[in-house]
């Protein structure tokens, strides 16, 4: 099952992606469906709504207000090697994203006025569907409802202003999330072995397999749950492979007018233009 969160004609809702188009499921939120339980998610397949005009739909983040967004740093061997830390971590590096940074497929990533160091990071997002604490690794995937695509666009100079990365990872409109939520049964267990690729203006800048993760999805769910209760609707962003802009010589950062795409096998393509904050404000005022 593939679900899309959308806005259309001043209303928001959820749609089921079918071979015939986007079938409207009404003014539902994926957060509420997941909180109700697995049965509520399965029941959506039987809803017979109208087909939406795909050209008129604006994509919203798959989940607009997740309870927790937990990002994993340095989770691909090659990316750890290109980072300033130069080693694979012994324990997952976890930092938060906040919902105020999220945008949907097609919406512009905003390069802020205070920095030009806007970098790309293609990732797989894990959406929790069943609440749990102290989850055994063997049971972890049963807590995963599905997956999506994320671009953990980062303001690098702000990220490295201190030992904590949070500020550089939470500028407004730097977290593209979508376009689809894909239920877990449509993918290999733990989304293992999927090709992930990031393209900037059509040129491939990241290419890897999710098999290259240092900590796989089951491990991440289990380890995080040692610390906190994972609730239905929480999200774990699983990290990015090598090729990020700041590690290149010279650095390759996104600029106004660029288009960034993240493609993950079985999940689709997340595509967003890049706009300068000043240009966006001027356009809004016009």
TrEMBL record:
Signal sequence, start to end: none
Gene3D superfamilies per the UniProt record, alphabetical: Fumarylacetoacetase-like, C-terminal domain
A GO BP entry: carboxylic acid metabolic process
Single GO MF descriptor: hydrolase activity
Pfam families noted in UniProt: FAA_hydrolase
Sorted UniProt keywords: Hydrolase, Metal-binding
Residues annotated as domain Fumarylacetoacetase-like C-terminal: 68-275
Coiled coil: none
Family membership noted in the UniProt record: Belongs to the FAH family.
Protein's name according to its UniProt entry: Fumarylacetoacetate hydrolase family protein
